[in-house]
Task: structure prediction
Amino acid sequence: MKLTKEIVGGALFLVLSVAVWFLIPSQIEVITDSRINAQFVPKVITLTLMAFSAINLVRAILSQRNVSMNSGSTKKMDILRVLILFVTFVVYSLLLEFIGFEIATVLAGGGILAIIGIKKWHYYAISTVFVVLVGFIFRTFFYVQLP
Result:
């Protein structure tokens, strides 16, 4: 089996989402006994990431059976790009505590767009505006204190 960027990406994000799933109870304090609490949204997002990563991994493995032996192999640069994206997410999660949600997310979003080769400036602007808007909505209307 050849390691393609889809296999590496699916496996890395599956491992990351499983790790985050087990870290949520120790990192997010729950004050109420209700089912919808501070851990609810992070668990939903993590479960969604876990499911899509598993689907992507299975699809990538199954698609290798259908590909003929004459097709080109995945470039090492593609696998390196997936690993750099994974490291970007890890660094992002570490920076959240130190520089806050908005700054860390804008930097990570811009970095990810640059890594995947996006050159249109308005994608960076949309990403930045969306992050600031989400931060504002969560603080103002939901009274959620972001890091």
Summary: Confidence is low (pLDDT under 50) at residues 68-72.
